[in-house]
Amino acid sequence: MSAVRRDLLRGWKVRAGLSVLAFFVLLALFGPWLTASVPGLDPRANDLTAIGLPPSAEHWLGTTQFGQDVLAQTIEGTRGSLFVGFLSAVIGTALAILVGLPAGYFGGRTDSWLNFLSNLFIVMPVLPLILIVAGYMQGTGLWVIALIIGFFGWSGGARTIRAQAMSVSNRDFVLAMRTLGEPHHRLLFHEVLPHLTGWIAAMFLQGVIGGVMAEAGLAFLGISDSGAISWGTMIQAAQQQSAVLRGMWWWFVPPGLCIALVATAATLVNFGVDELSNPKLRTVRRSVVRRTRDRAGSAGSAGSADRAGSTDRADGVVGQSPVGSDA
Amino acid sequence: MTTTPAPSAPGTPAPDAPVLEAVDVTKHFTVRSAVGTRSVVRAVEGATLSLPRGRVVALVGESGSGKTTLARLLAGFYAPTSGEIRLEGVPVRQRRGRVERGHHRDVQLVFQDPFGSLNPLHRVRHNIERPLRLHHGVRGKAELDRRVRELLERVALTPVEQFVDKFPHELSGGQRQRVVIARALAVEPKVLLGDEPISMLDVSIRLEMLNLLDRLRTEDGLALLYITHDIASARYLCDDIVVMYAGEMVEGGPKEHVIADPQHPYTRLLVESSPDPGRGARDREALFDADADSLGEPPSLIDPPAGCRFHPRCPFAMDVCRTQAPERINLGDGRWARCWLHQEGRAGELARPGAGVEPVAPGALAEPAAAPTATRTTQETQ
Ligand code: SF4
């Protein structure tokens, strides 16, 4: 809903979070090209004359045990990590919509089955399963990792979508369009789904971050593509080479910091979303006060609109409303 | 037309044959409470109603009387628990609780709440183009434009350019309800069901809406069901009145008779509590003010009173009323009522000194007429 989107962008937490994420997205898109063309660094090149060097003017973030530039690796890793994040989020969000939307819209038996499915995925011990599946697919590229993460990570989102779809589907306009003879797929995708865009956008964002974290976690456990570079593979390589013991903090701190930053950004965005879906958490902001005052000042149209949802469907009887005033 | 065999082509209906009928329709909903106990809501019980072409039938009752449920049954939203909905004499078939699409081609419903029945994300144009595409296969842009314009003009949303690309939130309640009506008309239905179409509109535009509905009935020969909780607007618009109480129909007949001489205690209560049109145009607000809701608590539909459901509130209640439900008694002139008074020979007590009032013509709303004062006999008999 556009109002949701507007409110979402108003809070500073959400803005800060989104800015950090936007920075990383830009870094992922243009960073590797920048490092290659400006300082002429290749994240994969092993410089045997510079092994395990601390940060210096030449290698701003130092080099690894293999003589690779940490800055170039971190930037290349941004691309790998975000690629996994985005792809897994696309898959996870698509699955969540595919399961949650019909469940909430159709209700009844369809809902029971689909809800059973998402509950199954919620209680499933996801991590061991991912380990097993990933073990079978050893050595495959980052996109397989993303696929696995997305496939196991949609269930929470499906429940959100289901609840929202259910409330939208029960509104009169859906019923009205159905009475016009609109087929279900039109109702689902043209009447109900557009109302969920705010939720879906928020979900997608969480999915991206979840994907980044999950990839790092899996890489740390040794499940990753040996040729690919991501923050996770960097930390894993550092760990394997006992970077901590050797005091090579510059190897694992940059990727770790990036992950922490992305996670913080995600938390900030989530705060914003939570405040929206649970108004009790919302501290009164100046703008809210102002808007409320404006609304009270204008004609009673807002009041009538609020009453719009007063249809009691349990017994199919429409609640009586007092005389509605016309704006 | 899909459910109808060839003979009744559009335009050549048998006069007075009902287009849409409910025959002894009952609807029970099973609701489950938080702790898992099931209970049955008896929303509609044995309702029989017929909507003839070119006539307006008013269904009057307080909220919770099951009138909305009945409208939704007629619209095919859900299947009746028992009984039958007939479209031009042919029973409407339900498939898995859902009516076939052909039903929607003939029967359209206007919702009570114009703020809720338009998708806030779609423009006026979208709402009207969809039924045109769905039911009439209109495809070309120019043709769509022409038809949309025509429909908006019919509901007096002019100049059309000003409205066609607006979003619902840019329109007033009355304008929205016009869009809703235009959307329903785009289907070219035979029956329009209005579920309290004016109750959420500003008082100042209610009369206009009623006149619009009246015009549609006259010009298009639509069968109109007008659901309302205020008997005054029913009196203004309709030809026949059916009164519902707690899921049951208690009385019905031509409007003049029902209002002038109610044959059921509940109808009498309704009529007496509604303002008199004779009081004049200055009182237009009052015309819509009193409604069936102000008459005390309606009974629970989960556990309705035994016998006549009105007996806890009825000033005439007898012993038989508390145990046995009254039969429907035909009273001649197309009138009927369900009340033991008629079987017990006490019908005379319902008559009141003010009975025999002139039938109320629409014009009577505008000019003050001699007010036939109704003495409140109810109080005396209590
Ligand atoms: S049947 Fe009895 S209780 Fe019911 S309305 Fe008639 S007199 Fe009153």
Could you characterize the architecture of this molecule?
The complex is a heterodimer of chains A (327) and B (382). With 327 residues, chain A is mainly alpha-helical. In chain A, 68% of the residues lie in helices and 1% in strands. Chain A folds into two domains: 2-281, MetI-like (MetI-like fold); 287-320, no CATH class. In chain A, strand 1 and strand 2 (317-318) form a beta hairpin. In chain A, helix 2 crosses helix 3 and helix 2 packs antiparallel against helix 12. Chain A is elongated. The two termini of chain A are 22 Å apart. Helix content of chain B is 31%, strand content 21%. In chain B, a hairpin with a 2-residue loop joins strand 13 and strand 14. In chain B, helix 3 (124-136) crosses helix 4, helix 3 (124-136) packs parallel to helix 6 (173-186) and helix 4 (141-154) crosses helix 6. Chain B is globular and about 70 Å long. At the A-B interface, helix 8, helix 14 and strand 2 of A face strand 1, helix 1, helix 2, helix 3 and helix 6 of B. Bound molecules: iron/sulfur cluster. Iron/sulfur cluster (SF4) is lined by residues 264-265, 308, 310-311, 314, 316-318, 321, 326, 339-341 of chain B.
